[in-house]
Amino acid sequence: MYKKLLSSSVLVLLIGIAVSALGFIKEMLVAYHFGTSAAIDVFYLALSVPLYLVSLYGSSINATIMPAYLQAKVQEKHRQFFSELMGLNLLFLLALSFICLVYSICLQPFFLHGSAVQNQQVLWIGLLLCPMIVLQGLTSYFDSILNAEKRNLINNLFSLGIPLGTIILLGFNQIPAALLLTLGWYFGFLLRFLGQYVILKRQIGFCWQAPKRIFFKKYQKLIQDFFWIVFSSAILGLLPVISNYLAGYLGAGQVASLNYATKLISTGLMLVGIIINSVLFPHIAEQIVKDQAQGIREGMRLAAASLLIFGFIMIPLYYYVEPIVALVFERGRFTADSTHQVAYILKYLLLYIPFYVPCILLSRLVVSLGISRIFVWGNLISLVLFFMAGWYLMVYLQLGIQSLGWALMLVYLVSALYLLMNIMLYRKRTQ
Q1: How far apart are CA 400 and CA 413, in angstroms?
Q2: Whole-prediction pTM value?
Q3: pLDDT tens, N- to C-terminus, the chain (431 residues)
Q4: What are phi and psi of 176, to 5 degrees?
Q5: 207 close to 26: Cβ distance less than 8 angstroms
Q6: DSSP string of 374-414?
Q7: How far apart (Å, rounded) are the C-alpha atoms in residues 276 and 409?
Q8: Do 260 and 27 form a contact (C-beta atoms < 8 A)?
Q9: CA–CA separation, 336 vs 338, rounded Å?
Q10: Which of 48, 253, 66 is nearest to 133 (CA)?
Q11: Which residues lie closer than 8 Å to 354 by C-beta, 6 or more apart?
């Protein structure tokens, strides 16, 4: 069993490395053309909330749909399940796009502290990105189904389209930076969506059904689980949005620098996420269905192993961040000063990773056990902790932007302990 799991993980990882490599090339080209200019600040400030909303949807739908789809497949009702849930998901994504539109017009101006021209640019780019929620959200829904169908290899190949869209458009130098990156975002996800749609049409042969009232009653338990995760994830998902706005207070180029550092981390974590969502989570979900006690032990062993592995990996990375940043980005308009600024931020962001990965694995175990309601209190605790730690380090101790790294480390450490405690309590109650 473990040999097969390992071979699947290696294949998925190799494709993930190819996707990450292309993503690196995209970020290197963006850095070459634009450096840490204010135009990059505009794009990332505008992207913060749309990306937050679609990420909130993506993580929640992946966690809830896959176990339910596997159950429907056992009953040979998976085609009907996919078709009916497609309409409900589209309805929810349209609602998220409308929420984003209202936020961009009514609330976002209160959180922007750039010049009047820059703030206006953030508003317009934010409005352009609102419909993107529907397109990117549908690719997340397709993700969960394709992974459940064990088509994870070809599904992850389609991820190559995401950075490819921006790389292609970077050849059009006459387009303003923020607009170019926005169009590249659309183009990349459109390429991925089309590939996924063709495969699913052949694999399942679904027929899309418009949402009906009866579907809400039929899938009431699934919808409740979904909204438990959405509500709880909404709290913790605010952390990167808040981080971007806080970086905006610290001066021009800080948002761009924070996002270059975050991109380096997220590229590595994307590889981990691919393995977790494509291989480990389906494995844990299947173990829970077969034998709950064995599934719990399996999930906890994987979480403990990830803590040790990533703890050792982060030690050398912490001391060599500046050469890594220079190797990846330092060319064109990305200067040596830019390298130093990004490396300084990256060094402290690395601190939370050894605790982040076990949190993801434990949260997937919690979802499989059907106790998602615990996320609400856990994420409320995390949000309060982040604010208190961030304020104390940034304002009282005046540690600057490195405070974000220390605060995130504390958040994920406490979160891991909270999830572990609740899993242990659940196991004790069900024995």
Answers
A1: 22
A2: 0.69
A3: 545 555 556 666 677 777 777 877 888 888 888 887 777 888 888 888 888 888 888 877 777 777 777 777 777 777 777 777 787 888 888 988 999 899 888 888 877 776 778 888 888 998 999 999 999 988 888 887 887 777 767 777 888 888 888 898 887 777 888 889 999 999 999 999 998 888 888 877 766 666 666 666 676 777 777 777 776 667 667 767 766 766 666 666 677 777 788 777 876 776 676 666 666 666 666 666 666 677 677 777 777 877 888 888 888 888 888 888 888 788 878 888 888 888 888 888 888 888 888 888 787 777 777 776 777 788 788 878 887 887 787 767 777 777 778 888 888 888 888 888 888 887 777 76
A4: -55, 145
A5: no
A6: HHHHHHHHHHHHHHHHHHIIIIIS--GGGHHHHHHHHHHHH
A7: 21
A8: yes
A9: 5
A10: 48
A11: 307, 310, 311, 314
Q: How many CB atoms lie within 10 A of CB 391?
A: 13
Structure-block tokens of residue 179: 């607009």
Q: Which of 217, 207, 6 is nearest to 87 (CA)?
A: 207
Q: What radius of gyration do the chain's Cα atoms show?
A: 21
CA pair distance 374, 89, nearest whole angstrom:
24
Tokens standing for 389?
């730690």
Closest CA to 426 of 383, 380, 367, 381: 367
Of 61, 199, 209, nearest to 141 by C-alpha is 61
- Joined together, the tokens standing for residue 91 give 């309805």
312 Cβ neighbours under 8 A, 6+ residues apart: none
* Inter-CA distances, 243 with 40, 116, 118, 235, 238, Å: 16, 21, 19, 14, 8
Residue listed under structure tokens 């490395």: 17
DSSP 28-45: HHHHHHHTT-HHHHHHHH
Tokens of residue 284, six digits: 């844990």
Of 29, 11, 12, whose CA–CA distance to 263 is shortest? Answer: 29
